[in-house]
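User: Sequence recovery, please. Input:
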């Protein structure tokens, strides 16, 4: 993926993508409860509206990360491919980013077993309801070409195995299906349990296949291969890249009436328009997340009851967080930031109301009423619909995975990325941007939870605490710890020290 970050001027734009539900209501048949639009942290909110940030503070925000002494290191260690032991099929659950990690693991498993990988099958997610195939999202030719020296890959099974389909495995118990792969299985587990299937039948279909390969005790070449897949082989199809480039260009070089003041900021001393900088904000605040978190988001008794009913209906009430009080959850940093809270965080860090926001998420729980406080702090909010016409968006309409792919692409081309709460998009973006040494703001969730519970705190103290608490969370390298994901923490497995 080619990124263009050079020659940018100081002024800022912030990116966040989202779809909105109807004004003031949650988007589920389980609840149509009105959501209050009054700021929950009114004391801080009123102060934030009056902030005028110093140019020095903004300058520090937009300064790219310094060289941290490492470089990507994923060169193939294979000299040649030996005869294949058979065909590996995988069926991947989840949304785009979970499937992306599954694809990387599938390549690694094929390498471990010296098998031929069939282009992975993407299951239809019950939430996103997107039936896109691998080739609808990712550039298959690029994928196969980048990995041609590492493993054997085929688009489709040969004629003698065409019976091995999703429908075939759904209809009965099959001896070629491996369905007992444990979470984070070792390389030896695959050798002991999948290799015999390949030897007997020439094919093995692994389903489910999500988080099925361990991160610890893996050979160095397997770890580097996983990163090679994630950061080099997985490139989006051309129309996703083209739409992403269109959005990035319009964010950096806005020429509409609403962007007049912004354009004044990006004209240099010679009168030549230069590119504006922007931040991608993943505003992860959908109804599933809100219900599963079991946190109190200020919607009163009606909202609490509605979320409890939803938890009961979807998870039969078996949600670990529901055992704790809201105060306990916030002290532990387990409550996602609301749109208002992420707005207060950004303001405290130095972003101001001239910063343009591009919202990157699924539907916001509570719709416009929930997001109104963020809009007041950052009035120049953009999204795909505001930046591109219906005709320009035609190829991704109704395709949740392709929409998410555009968000991913735009986020990777941003100067700064921020996520309102941990999740698959957050994890994928933190890892990818770490690999390329790009600035990422990782909110200190435990600190922010405690700060937002303090209703008497003034703005000056809040801002000082935020700046101090985020000091080492703006892109500083974190070394991967035991059991942590290589896709979120690619250092040191996928990098080398610079000479």
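Assistant: Recovered sequence (499 residues):
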């Amino acid at each position: 993926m080619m990124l263009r970050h050079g020659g940018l001027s100081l002024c800022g734009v912030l990116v966040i993508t989202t779809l909105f539900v109807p004004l003031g209501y949650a988007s589920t048949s389980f609840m149509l409860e009105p959501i209050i639009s009054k700021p929950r942290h009114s004391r801080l909110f009123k102060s934030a509206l009056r902030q005028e940030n110093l140019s020095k503070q903004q300058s520090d925000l937009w300064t790219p990360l310094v060289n941290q002494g490492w470089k990507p290191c994923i060169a193939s260690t294979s000299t040649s491919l030996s005869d294949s032991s058979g065909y590996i099929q995988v069926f991947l659950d989840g949304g785009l980013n979970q499937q992306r990690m599954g694809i990387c693991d599938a390549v690694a498993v094929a390498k471990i077993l010296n098998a031929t990988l069939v282009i992975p099958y993407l299951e239809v997610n019950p939430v996103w309801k997107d039936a896109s195939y691998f080739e609808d999202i990712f550039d298959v030719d690029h994928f196969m070409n980048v990995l041609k020296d590492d493993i054997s890959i085929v688009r489709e099974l040969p004629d003698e195995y065409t019976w091995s389909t999703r429908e075939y495995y759904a209809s009965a118990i099959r001896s070629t299906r491996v369905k007992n792969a444990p979470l984070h299985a070792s390389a030896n587990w695959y050798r002991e349990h999948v290799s015999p299937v390949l030897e007997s039948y020439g094919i093995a279909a692994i389903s489910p296949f999500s988080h099925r390969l361990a991160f610890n005790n893996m050979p160095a070449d397997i770890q580097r291969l996983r990163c090679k897949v994630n950061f080099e082989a997985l490139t989006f199809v051309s129309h996703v890249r083209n739409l992403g480039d269109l959005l990035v260009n319009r964010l950096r070089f806005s020429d509409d009436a609403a962007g007049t003041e912004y354009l004044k900021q990006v004209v240099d001393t010679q009168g030549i328009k230069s590119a504006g900088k922007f931040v991608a904000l993943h505003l992860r605040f959908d109804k599933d997340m809100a219900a599963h978190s079991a946190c109190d988001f200020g919607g009163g008794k009606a909202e609490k009851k509605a979320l409890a009913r939803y938890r009961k209906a979807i998870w039969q009430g078996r949600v670990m967080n529901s055992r704790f009080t809201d105060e306990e959850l916030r002290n532990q940093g387990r409550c996602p930031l609301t749109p208002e809270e992420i707005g207060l965080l950004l303001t405290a860090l130095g972003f101001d109301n001239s910063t343009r926001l591009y919202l990157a998420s699924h539907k916001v729980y509570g719709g416009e009423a929930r997001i109104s406080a963020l809009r007041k702090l950052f009035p120049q909010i953009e999204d795909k619909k505001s930046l591109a016409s219906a005709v320009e968006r035609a190829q991704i309409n109704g395709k949740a995975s392709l929409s998410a792919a555009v968000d991913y692409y735009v986020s990777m081309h941003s100067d700064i990325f921020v996520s309102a709460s941990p999740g698959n998009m957050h994890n994928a973006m933190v890892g990818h941007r770490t690999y390329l040494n790009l600035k990422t703001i990782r909110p200190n969730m435990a600190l922010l939870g405690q700060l937002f519970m303090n209703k008497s705190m003034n703005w000056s103290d809040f801002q000082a605490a935020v700046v101090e608490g985020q000091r080492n969370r703006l892109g500083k390298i974190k070394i991967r710890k035991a059991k942590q994901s290589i896709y979120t923490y690619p250092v040191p497995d996928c990098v080398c020290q610079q000479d």
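The chain is about 40% helix and 15% strand.
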